[in-house]
Amino acid sequence: MSGNAAAQIKALPELVAAPTPDSASMMPPRTHAHVVIIGAGFGGLEAAKALGRDGIAVTVIDRRNHHLFQPLLYQVATAALSAPDVAEPIRKILRRYPSIQVLFGEVDRVDPVRRVIALSGGTEIGFDYLILASGASLSYFGHSEWASLAPGLKTIEDARTIRSRLLLSFEQAERETDPVEQQRLTSIFIIGGGPTGVELAGSVAELCRYTLARDFRNISPAAARIVLIEAAPRLLAAFSETASDYAKARLERLGVTVRLRTAVEDITATSITIAGESLPAGMVIWAAGVKPSPLARDLGAAVDRSGRVMVDSTLAVPGLPGVFAIGDAAHCKDPDGSPLPGLAQVAKQQGFHLGRELGLHLQDGTSLAPFRYASRGNAAIVGRHAAVFEKGRRTISGTLAWLGWAFVHVYLLVGFQHRMLVSLQWLWRYLTYERGARLITEDQAVERGTATQPRQQG
């Protein structure tokens, strides 16, 4: 942790003495209660803002200083947008709420009995109420050695790594004289046929066929081999078969090879093994799975098979008074008993609901109302003016779905400035097929042994 962050933590006012937990699922209301929120994702931010509007003392802790709009992160990875277009400083978002303090730091441990949070470096912060909104990280299903070979897409750093490696593969192929090696370098494999994998595959295909195709002379990026691998029988398993079939057909029109019912057996620096066959690969991207933050298990409460904390209808953790979990950290069920999906809209609704209800409870002692999720529908973009959107039994595909997807995602971006920038860039990209964020970072160039002097960016 940085010196500034440590100084901020040490400067916190002395907290009210922590109460002794009892068997109740909810603690008595306290006028001067202190709420700590771990994570400033969609859920954590919504909870903080709701509590901040009521003047509740809140400390938001995150290991990054920015809120990331993950649904558009794949466009950073494929050079359609720049990192600042999809991220906003947490302090800027919350500075209008005087009762909220933002701390930059890594949470090492949560002790719900002593009611303290331990940060890296040994600093402890007490809490009266805790909201765990720590999100999720990538899961390689027991193959942690694949992480360095097949980067996933959860952070800005991940997006920049994918973008750099992707562009470097074509740069290396451009100066390669062996056609076999050229073909390997321009073979891109994407593992996982969910929304992230589908959106990545479509965006990579458009990058190769419409943008990079005009930039190179010795190779033909339009002929790049792009393969989307999914172990399940169809793409977009959370959607209807109609939407899955549409997505597959659109990707194949873009030149993407879709391999269904196919599991990955091995990944190396130059190849990928699927269905017993080793195929040369210049780039492998992981979009197959995520796992909750390990902090979820540290609570000592009941968790599901993936490690998400079991919560009741009010989003409280049973057996831990004053402790709540939301978003990807929580296993929350619908009234019919099925677990809610790990979507941004779920986390946002949970954060807003919990922040509002907890604020009312702290002010007048009212009981927390149960959370009810209202689906706004599911959407996935499949390329230029093509998307699928579903709500209930209604399915929309094509240009109309794409326009709806674009409108919703621009609207959800934090800050009017970002909405304008993203809208203008999308319009320019739509009219020209141009992408301006085609940067290769120096660390990736050095890693691949292709650093040149002088360094050039474009």
Question: What descriptive keywords fit this protein?
Answer:
458 residues, alpha/beta, FAD/NAD(P)-binding domain, 2 domains
Short structural summary:
With 458 residues, the chain is α/β, with parallel strands linked by helices.
Query: How many individual helices?
Result: 13
Question: What is the CATH topology assignment of the largest domain?
Answer: FAD/NAD(P)-binding domain
Radius of gyration: 23 Å
| Overall CATH class of the largest domain | Alpha Beta
- Uncertain residue segments: 1-25, 451-458
Number of domains: 2
The CATH architecture of the largest domain:
3-Layer(bba) Sandwich
Number of strands: 24
Task: Describe this protein's structure.
- Helix 2 packs parallel to helix 10 and helix 5 packs antiparallel against helix 6.
- It is built from 13 helices and 24 strands.
- It has two domains: 170 residues, FAD/NAD(P)-binding domain (3-Layer(bba) Sandwich), CATH 3.50.50.60; 208 residues, FAD/NAD(P)-binding domain (3-Layer(bba) Sandwich).
- It is elongated and about 70 Å long.
- It has a five-stranded parallel beta sheet, sandwiched between helices. A four-stranded parallel beta sheet has the order 13-12-11-17.
- The longest helix has 21 residues.
- The protein has 458 residues and is of the alpha/beta class.
Task: Give a topology summary.
Blueprint: H1 3-10, E1 34-38, H2 42-53, E2 57-62, E3 66-68, H3 73-77, E4 87-89, H4 90-94, E5 100-104, E6 107-111, E7 116-119, E8 124-126, E9 129-132, E10 136-138, H5 156-175, H6 179-185, E11 187-191, H7 195-211, E12 225-229, H8 241-253, E13 256-259, E14 264-267, E15 271-274, E16 277-280, E17 283-286, E18 290-292, H9 295-298, E19 309-310, E20 323-325, E21 330-331, H10 344-364, E22 378-383, E23 386-391, E24 394-398, H11 399-412, H12 416-432, H13 442-447
Parallel strand pairs: 1-2, 1-9, 2-5, 9-20, 11-12, 11-17, 12-13, 19-21
Antiparallel strand pairs: 3-4, 6-7, 7-8, 10-18, 14-15, 15-16, 22-23, 23-24
